[in-house]
Amino acid sequence: MAAPSERTKVRRLPERAEYDREVIDSILDEAMICHVGINTADGYPVVIPTIHARSGNTLYLHGSPASRLLRSMKSGDEICVTVTLIDGVVVARSAFHNSMNYRSVVVIGEPRIVDSSVEKLAALESVTDHVIAGRWAQSRPISEKELKGTLVVALDLNEASAKVRGHGAVDDESDYAEPIWAGVIPISTVSGDPVSDDRLLPGVATPENIANYTRPGWS
Q1: Is residue 177 situated within a structural domain?
Q2: Phi, psi of 28 (to 5 degrees)
């Protein structure tokens, strides 16, 4: 377990901090969306949601070359990427102590534009399979035009930390005598039955990974 940097060290409620890379990676792999914080060329901050994927020690982001988010990364400025998973609503006897059970990650670093077509293809495969495992191999191969029309950005996970809460309500000692319900409402994400496209060719079966869609961390 690597020591956190001064920028990623958890200072508020440090007992919730997790610096183990397995914990950090598992949260990044389960989350479908991340939020990227940037400073725009116009001098104001913006936080934008986008799809991400992790491959080893690298986090990949992708989008249109015209995207303000990705265009801003060409300047070499550092960015901050966060993800959050909600596992439960914590209901305390006092409204002051209501909380949530969650798992979150913060990554800080200088992104780089992926110029190599080999790495770009591998990154796009990672992003595709991050959302639906095995989908890249089932899809039509990406065209040269599509590859050139996609900007891929890589961010090393050298500065990253996680924060986790996973327990019940913590009330003031005097409030435990109050006849008020307290506990945890579990929150989980489930997928519904796939709905086939209207123009699906006759006889095309639903792949197993679509019919029984799941993600890392789902029960």
Answers
A1: no
A2: -60, -40
**Do the domain assignments include residue 36?**
yes
The 3 state secondary structure assigned to 136-157 is HHHCCCCCHHHHHCCEEEEEEC
- Residue 154 is assigned to a structural domain of this protein: yes
Tokens of 150: 């996609």
**Do residues 63 and 69 touch, judged by C-beta distance below 8 A?**
yes
> Any idea of the CA torsion for 30, 33, 39, 41, to the nearest 10 degrees?
130
Q: Answer left, alpha or beta for residue 137, where phi above 0 means left and psi between -120 and 50 means alpha.
A: alpha
- pLDDT on residue 107: 96
- Can you tell me the distance from the alpha carbon of 126 to that of 58, in angstroms, rounded to the nearest whole number? 11
Q: Is residue 4 part of a domain?
A: no
Contact 83, 29 (CB under 8 A): no
Residue 105 contacts residue 162 (beta carbons within 8 Å): yes
* Biggest distance spanned by C-alpha atoms of the chain: 68
CATH number, position 64: 2.30.110.10
Distance CA 172, CA 155 (A): 43
pLDDT at 94: 97
Mean pLDDT by 10 residues, the chain (219 residues): 75 79 96 92 86 96 75 75 97 97 96 93 96 96 92 94 95 96 95 94 95 86
For residue 4, the model assigns a pLDDT of 78
